[in-house]
């Protein structure tokens, strides 16, 4: 190893016009068993732009003004990732890691402050190994949620995993921030069902749970991606689902009482039994001209039981026999992904997600929003036909898990999460849409959680604050946005960061800053 470091000393201490060849030489030294030239792309490479744009879901960050990676690596094994870490440290470069490219602010593949960085694209690391008889699975970070769901169902139709409804989101991004989905009220978040992981730390070492220790294992399960290392794979605890589940999707216009139903939903969805998940959305074109409400439900049981339950607990919604459908759990995953009755194999298609120029932000609601306020919220959608609100109810097991169990703290009395989303296929529309979503969020200030006003790290929003000092991140400044995502858990995350990556090698505009305190007390 000493000879290897001596060789690297004589390469170049900083990347220059010969960066590609120099970095390639470095990778070859660290990964002699790999053909590294096949995984390294510079900005002058023929396939660079196509590769970079391949999984960028937010078209706002495909412009010429976006600071792009100076090099892209597409590793096929862990040795190549270890080599990438070592070579980046040698040249004073930071690493950003992209699994699926769905992060709303694009922090896995762009820099806001124009700093140089190398991007690792984990598309090739997507293996999934299911152990149905043990009820566990190992999934690499580059695998999509859709691939995971499908492969679990092929092994056992009564096994599943609690994660999101968008099938093209990858495990690396979703699991690092929490993972909210239709099974959350029954089994908790994705991070509540992770048993082990393999991570490459800032020293290039591969660590499992035993080797990394419980503090780091705690941090990577909900502390957000890009702060603590590169998670190669995750060991999951699979959960039981019935052979037959029931779903319904009901649209209600303003004339059909959409506002009153949303108002009532706040009170009943949180209190429902854990087998019932009931989402409420506001969409701008329910009847072609006016906004309305959409209610989507997954019930872990038959339609007869679900209908009886709804008639007792939410009769105002008027769910009838014709609204309810029975199907397998994997088919319900297809349905919630908005693919109707398509063959579940559609979940294997990584290119299904439509790309747009978009903006997202989020809130959490502790106390029900008053009826008159909902009238004002619906008014916002009369002026914009590209905005959406998705609201996922909490309660169930989520209200029983302590806030400190994982970095995700939004449990206990949290009624539901709000995701605000606006998008367009045209770049010319986005400035107006950005103003619209910022105005809507401002209008919600006194209706949602306070001190701090909470947000979900998987719905990243740089308007909440960002790290502007490069690697020299101030903990006090980062608290502005960090405590919104993590509440009191933010300090513990920063302390863990100070232990495992004190030089802040893994960083981005909303990464956890290192906090180094002697005699730490978590």
UniProtKB/TrEMBL annotation:
Q: Fetch the SUPFAM superfamilies from UniProt.
A: FAD-binding/transporter-associated domain-like (SSF56176)
- List keywords of the entry alphabetically: FAD, Flavoprotein, Glycoprotein, Signal
The transmembrane segments are none
Question: FAD-binding PCMH-type domain: which residues?
Answer: 65-241
GO MF annotations, alphabetized: FAD binding; oxidoreductase activity
Check the record and name the InterPro entries matching this protein.
BBE, FAD-bd_PCMH, FAD-bd_PCMH-like_sf, FAD-bd_PCMH_sub1, FAD-bd_PCMH_sub2, Oxid_FAD_bind_N
Cofactor section: FAD
Q: Where is the signal peptide?
A: 1-16
Instruction: Please give the family membership noted in the entry.
Output: Belongs to the oxygen-dependent FAD-linked oxidoreductase family.
Protein name as annotated: FAD-binding PCMH-type domain-containing protein
């Amino acid at each position: 190893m000493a000879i290897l470091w001596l060789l690297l000393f004589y390469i170049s201490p900083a990347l220059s016009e010969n960066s590609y060849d120099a970095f390639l030489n470095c990778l070859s030294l660290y990964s002699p068993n790999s053909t590294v030239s096949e995984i390294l792309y510079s900005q002058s490479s023929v396939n660079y732009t196509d590769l970079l744009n391949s999984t960028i879901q937010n078209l706002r960050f495909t412009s010429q003004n976006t600071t792009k990676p100076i090099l892209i690596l597409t590793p096929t094994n862990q040795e190549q990732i270890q080599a990438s870490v070592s070579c980046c440290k040698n040249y004073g470069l930071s690493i950003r890691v992209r699994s699926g490219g769905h992060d709303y602010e694009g922090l896995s593949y762009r820099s806001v402050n124009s700093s140089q960085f190398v991007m690792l694209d984990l598309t090739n690391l997507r293996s999934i190994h299911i152990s149905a008889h043990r009820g566990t699975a190992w999934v690499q970070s580059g695998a999509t949620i859709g691939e995971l769901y499908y492969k679990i169902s092929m092994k056992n139709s009564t096994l599943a995993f609690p994660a999101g409804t968008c099938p093209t989101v990858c495990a690396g991004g979703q699991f690092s921030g929490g993972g909210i989905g239709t099974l959350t009220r029954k089994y908790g978040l994705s991070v509540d069902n992770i048993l082990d992981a393999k991570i490459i730390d800032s020293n290039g070492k591969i660590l499992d749970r035993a080797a990394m220790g419980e503090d780091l294992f705690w941090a990577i399960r909900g502390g957000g991606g890009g702060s603590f290392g590169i998670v190669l794979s995750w060991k999951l605890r699979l959960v039981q689902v019935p052979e037959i589940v029931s779903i319904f999707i009901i649209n209600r216009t303003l004339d059909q009482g959409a506002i009153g139903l949303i108002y009532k939903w706040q009170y009943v969805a949180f209190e429902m039994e854990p087998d019932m998940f009931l989402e409420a959305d506001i969409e701008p074109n329910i009847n072609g001209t006016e906004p309305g409400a959409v209610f989507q439900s997954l019930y872990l049981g038959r339609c007869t039981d679900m209908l009886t339950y709804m008639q007792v607990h939410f009769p105002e919604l008027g769910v009838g026999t014709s609204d309810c459908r029975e199907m397998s759990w994997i088919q319900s995953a297809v349905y919630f992904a908005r693919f109707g009755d398509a063959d579940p194999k559609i979940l294997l298609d990584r290119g299904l997600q439509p790309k747009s120029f978009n903006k997202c932000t989020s809130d959490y609601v502790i106390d029900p929003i008053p009826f008159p306020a909902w009238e004002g919220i619906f008014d916002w959608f009369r002026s914009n036909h590209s905005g959406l609100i998705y609201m996922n109810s909490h309660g169930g097991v989520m209200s029983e898990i302590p806030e400190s169990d994982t970095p995700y703290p939004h449990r206990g009395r949290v009624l539901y999460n709000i995701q605000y989303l606006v998008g367009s296929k045209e770049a010319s529309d986005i400035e107006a849409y950005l103003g619209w979503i910022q105005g809507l969020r401002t209008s919600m200030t006194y209706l949602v959680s306070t001190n701090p006003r909470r947000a979900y790290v998987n719905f990243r929003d740089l308007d909440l604050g960002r790290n502007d000092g490069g690697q020299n991140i101030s903990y006090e400044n980062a608290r502005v946005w960090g405590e919104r995502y993590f509440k009191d858990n933010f300090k513990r995350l920063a302390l863990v960061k100070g232990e495992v990556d004190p030089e802040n090698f893994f960083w981005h505009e909303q990464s956890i800053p290192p906090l180094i305190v002697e005699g730490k007390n978590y």
